[in-house]
Amino acid sequence: MSPLLEIQGLVKHYPVGSRFSAQRRLLRAVDGIDLSVSPGETLGLVGESGCGKSTTVRMIMRLLEPTAGRILFDGQEITRLSGARLKAVRQRMQIVFQDPFASLNPRKTVERIVSDPLEIHRIGTAAERRARVYKLLQRVGLDRSHADRYPHEFSGGQRQRISIARALACAPQLIVADEPVSALDVSIQAQVINLLQDLQRDLALTMIFISHDLSVVQYVSDSIAVMYLGKIVELGPSHAIYHEAQHPYTRSLLSAIPVPDPTRRGSVPPLESELPSPMNIPAGCRFHPRCPLATERCRREAPELRPVGAQQVACHNI
Ligand code: ADP
Ligand code: MG
Description:
Oligomer: single chain
Strand order of the largest sheet: 6-7-8-3-9-10-12-11
Bound molecules: adenosine-5'-diphosphate, magnesium ion
Order of helices and strands: EEEHEEHEHHHEHEHEEHHHEE
Structural class: alpha/beta
């Protein structure tokens, strides 16, 4: 099946420091990644905070201009689309952000918020839009009586449901959920994750689900991409990544998951040292300063992704 979304060699570099300073440097937020997502599939994107996950999906959504690389959506290159053609593609992909407090306009009612995308894309009459909003609210576990209220009247979990209703308004094919539960109380995280999963199944959505927590990503994803300092270091089916992780970085992420799981062995200790700055990416394998398996070769030569078992892994030592 041809992918719904494909990215090739995607790069985002930020120049930092004063324009006039000799010390102008590059922050390499995303440093050349390839991914493809099949229709109806959920791809999990995981990695520590600051590794480039949000930057990647913001480029996919065309909210950020890539420094280099290509983005293909449903067979069409969208990297440089603008105007009406970009707007048409935007209708087909939607994002749910991490912070349901910052992402909802406090001055708008829930009805206005959820119907905004319908108005932007000139879908339906006012009455049809209202009916659609009621239906969407019910679909995400809210009530039509919530339509006249304002975001501050809701809990974090309910706000995230409103964000999800808004994302679904134009019946998109692709939903990007960027840490959709990371700002929520643990007790309600599962409800929102289950809602997203139900919607994904019922509406045959294609989804990119981002989290810094591999156990959450594993739960929702068909396949998983593990990111480290702007690169993908391991990629493959969810069960393989979770039960037979190969890359030492993936294995450290697994060891950090507190619930002991007898089916997997944490042969690598959880990471303690800090993620290096993306302004100062280590030479060779960018993980080598934190890697328990690092050798001389790792300090010199950057490993490429290559097939190992069911997945692809960028490591010289496995
Ligand atoms: P993640 O979502 O994985 O936590 P991000 O994609 O938000 O990571 O950020 C990746 C890196 O890019 C971080 O070091 C972040 O500080 C940096 N970054 C993000 N946006 C900008 C920007 N507008 N200018 C400079 N650096 C940025
Ligand atoms: Mg982020």
